[in-house]
Amino acid sequence: MLKALIHEKLQNYGFCNHGLLKKMYSNLDFGTLFSQTLYQQGNISVKAMILEKICKLDENSRPLRMATLPEPVPGKDEIVIKISTCGVCHTELDEIEGRTPPSVLPMVLGHQVVGRVAARGPGAERFKTGDRVGAAWIFSACGSCDFCRTGRENLCASFMATGRDANGGYAEYMRVPQGFAYAIPGDLADVEAAPLLCAGAIGYRSLCLTGIEDGQLLGLTGFGASAHLVLKMVIRRFPRSKVFVFARSQKERAFAIELGAAWAGDIGDVPPEYLHAIIDTTPVWKPLMEALQCLKPGGRLVINAIRKESRDNSLLTQLDYPRHLWMEKELKSVANVTRRDVREFLKIAAEIPIKPEFQEYPLKEANTALMELKQRKIRGAKVLRIG
User: Is the distance from CB of 145 to CB of 108 less than 8 angstroms?
Assistant: First the structure.
C-alpha cells in the first residue's frame, strides 16, 4: 500500500519513468520517500525551497517553491543539521532541467551545506549537539563494493547525492549520515565554508587529476565558483605555475586577472603559451574543443562537469584527430567527489587560507541566484543565507 501511494504521488509530479522508479526503489528506503510526501498532508515545521517538476529555466524562471516540511528525524547513525548557509551550484541547474534529475520529486536541492548538529539518531556519536558541520554532494555510498573499499566511493553504483537522491540544504534542516558529515574549520565563517564543500572540493579533485607540478602551466576554461578557488589554490601551492583563464565574459576575465591569473582571454582565443593541463568547468562543448587545441603534446584536459548541455553537440562532429587529440593528449572526466576530497580540501583551505569570493542571498531568493547562475552573472560563488 505504501509503495502504491508513493508511486501515485511520483506520477502526480510527472515522474513516470518506470525504469528510473525501479532503480529508485532499490536505492531508497520507503521511510525516506514517505517522509518527503508528508508536508502535503499538513505536518508542518520546516521552511524549504522545493523542486516539484523538471522544467527548462528559459521557460520557467521560478522552478522552486517555498514550502513547509516536517522537521527531519535522524535514523540510526544519522544527524540532523540546523542549516545556516548553503551554496548554489551549477549542478542544481542540471537537476532542474533534467540532465541529472532527482530520483524522487518533490526534492529539496542543495549540497554545499553548513550548520550545526541539532539532533542525533541512535549510534550517532561522532559529533556532539551544537557542533558545526557540513554536508557535501556525496550523501552516501554502499561501503562494500570494490570502489568503496579502495577509496573511490565517488564511482559506487549505489552513490547517492545530497539534494538529488536525498533532501538537501535549501531548507532550515536536513538529515545526513554521520559518516558523510564534516567538521568545519574554525577560521572559516559559515558563508565562506559552504562553497568549499563542492566548488572547492571538486576543484581540488580536478586539480589532482591534472597531475600538474609546480612550474607547469595550467588553463581554466570557465571562471565560476570552482575555477576561482582553483586559481587561489594554485597560486599558493604551485607558486611557479602560471594560470591562463578562458571565459566568455569580460567581467569574469577581469576578475581572473584581479585574483592573479597570468592571462585571460575569450573562449577560442590563443594563449601566449601551450599548456600542460586545462580544467574545463563549462556546461557546453565549444570550450572543450577549443581547449584541446591549446594543450602541449602529452597535455591533459580534465572535464569538471556532471553533464554537458546538448545545444552545441553538433560541434563534436568537427573533432579532428590530428589537431585535437594526437600527440598523446588526454581527456579525463571528474565524477562526483569522495569524502577524502572534502576533508583534504577543507584542511588545505584552512591552512593556506583559501576563502571564496561570494554573493549572498536569502533562502526565498534561491530562484534569483539560480537564474543569475544560468545567465552567467557570476563573481565567485553564490550562497544562500538560511539561519
Answer: no
